[in-house]
Amino acid sequence: MAVAKLKFLDKDEEDLIHQQSIECLETLGVKIKSEKILKMLDEAGADIDYKAQIAKITEGMVKDALKTVPKEMTLHARDPMHNMKIPVSSFPFCATTGLGVYIRDIKTGKKRDSTRKDIADFIRLADALDAVDYVWTSLTATEVPQLTHGLHELWTAFQNTTKHVQGVEILNAEDAKKQIELGALIAGGREELRKKPNFSVIHCSIAPLMFEHEAAEAMVEFVKAGVPVATMTMSLSGGTAPVTIAGTIVNGNSENLASLVINQTAAPGAPEIYCSSSAPVNMRTGIIDYMTVNQPLIATGLAQMAKRYGLPCMTGDWGVNDTPEPGVPHTFSEVMGVSLSTMSGTDLQSGIGGLDAVKGGALEQEVIEAYIWENVRKFMTPFEISSVTAALNVIKEVGHGNTFLGHIHTAKNFRKEIVLRDPEKGRFESTNSTAMAEEARQIALKVLAEHEVPPLDKEILQKGNDIIRNWEKENGF
Hints:
Layout: H1 11-28, E1 30-32, H2 35-44, E2 47-49, E3 54-56, H3 59-68, E4 73-75, E5 84-86, E6 93-96, E7 102-104, E8 111-113, H4 116-128, E9 134-136, H5 149-159, E10 164-167, H6 173-187, H7 190-195, E11 199-204, E12 210-211, H8 213-224, E13 229-233, E14 236-237, H9 245-266, E15 272-276, E16 279-280, H10 294-308, E17 313-314, E18 316-317, H11 332-342, E19 348-352, E20 354-355, E21 360-362, H12 363-376, H13 387-390, H14 392-398, H15 408-417, H16 423-426, H17 437-450, H18 458-474
Parallel strand pairs: 1-12, 6-19, 7-21, 9-10, 10-11, 11-13, 13-15, 14-16, 15-17, 18-19
Antiparallel strand pairs: 1-3, 2-3, 4-5, 7-8, 20-21
Helix pairs in contact: 1-9, 2-9, 3-9, 4-5, 5-6, 5-18, 6-8, 6-18, 8-9, 9-10, 10-11, 12-17
């Protein structure tokens, strides 16, 4: 099937990125602040400098990891109708935004710290929106103990959606074990969770080329339990990676290959998603800038590298607002760049509902971006290219200078071949505009008033609450 996708690197350039990444891992290596993981890699054949905490990873180790890692997987949901098989054959699956720390109150419009109630509303709205295929935990539960907020966020998300949940916050290995317990409750046990993982997690390496102690050991706990890990690099051009696009891609690819080796060494055959949220930094402010020309090109280059290795990937971003107010504040060319990142070849992406470079979120923005995505994703509708669809016989029958309007072939095929955008949702696409925000607010309020998510079994709900409550007691919270 033919699908519109952006291609950035030619074969020789892919080869160069791969060669440079292998050289980076073999000669410079990666810094891993975990003696446990360093010992594991040492036994697997890496060259370890324990004092410097550096692991130099061989090309052979990368090849071995690529042999064991699954090339496709299903991300399961509470409702099997929402299961997602990746790699995709058309447009990528899209999720909500990342871990914002504030929300624009849907009633007052004022900015305030986000809570579990806000997470519940954000996720329940996402559950109702067709364009949202799975959910990130999206907002921070600021009213709970800081060291357990990730558990609260994951558990709140589980209760408010029947879609797949992707966790964003990982504290340490013990926190990971508790998250696994919560997922196993929903799945019906640890083995069921392994067979049908109802949640996945984001793990970020620390660019350039470093793995923090607690998060890295947590990542290993997840892969041992069969929970898919998206190994996100956030290589920031000019900040934590070379300012060149090629240098950023090499850094991001090297980090993903290092994550791959760590995970496949710890648990051969563990599901893993090649992942990136890389972009340049704004040279005036030092803040990540997703609205540059570079960002979709970096995303495309890394997606191509993932596909070279046969790996499912999450490299694109969808989110058309990095300012504090709901709306579409950017120009046509800026929004075009965001659209292109979805055509990068990525299988998964996130970003719906975010504000202010993902520091916050708004329910109105969630509606706006979901509605826009419904139209944008249609550009990646798959089309069959074959001798049948080429329709040369029909061309011959109609002949020179005549019309195809009255031919039976047109009557039989036009509905599936001509893809139209929804003009109602098109009203939400005005750039440099906040005009759609009030209508989106009313839609969000209506959905929250009417949409019900099937509740968890009371016994499961109680057990999940107890897991978090007991963990807080054990840690003196």
